[in-house]
Design brief:
Blueprint lengths: L2 E5 L2 E4 L4 E8 L7 E7 L6 E6 L6 E3 L7 E6 L4 E6 L8 E8 L16 E2 L3 E6 L1
Parallel strand pairs: 2-11
Antiparallel strand pairs: 1-3, 3-8, 4-5, 4-9, 5-6, 7-8, 9-10, 9-11
Length: 127
């Protein structure tokens, strides 16, 4: 059974940092591209970051560039999202996703192209 399990969410003050982890099990995800999305109350799920299978290419939405870093450890089947200089507008449920392609491709910002999803982890940034 394929599973993606996120961890590392929580409550943090503005300007603080959190590191999210997403551990995969049930399949060798080392050849899969991975992504992070987030969804705030009353809003659609939005793309945050993506990474190709080797970690050599990363992609970010403009609002997190320079603050967030996506990385992966294929030996552990885990992808990370380091979030620094957090802002109240970063408050959301964060979801990790996996796509059965090595490269992020053209549509990496579209949630519908991802094949597997985690259950989400809440990130709350207080002002």
């Amino acid at each position: 059974q394929v599973q993606l399990v996120e961890s590392g969410g929580g409550l943090v003050q503005a300007g603080g940092s959190l590191r999210l982890s997403c551990a995969a099990s049930g399949r060798a995800f080392s050849s899969y591209s991975r992504g992070w999305f987030r969804q705030a109350p009353g809003k659609e799920r939005e793309f945050v970051a993506a990474i190709n299978w080797s970690g050599s290419s990363t992609y970010y939405t403009d609002s997190v560039k320079g603050r967030f870093t996506i990385s992966r450890d294929n030996a552990k089947n885990t992808v990370y999202l380091q979030m620094n200089l957090l802002k109240p507008e970063d408050t959301a449920v964060y979801y990790c996703a996996a796509r059965s392609t090595r490269y992020a491709g053209t549509y990496y910002t579209d949630p519908s192209v991802y094949d597997y999803w985690g259950q989400g982890t809440q990130v709350t940034v207080s002002s």
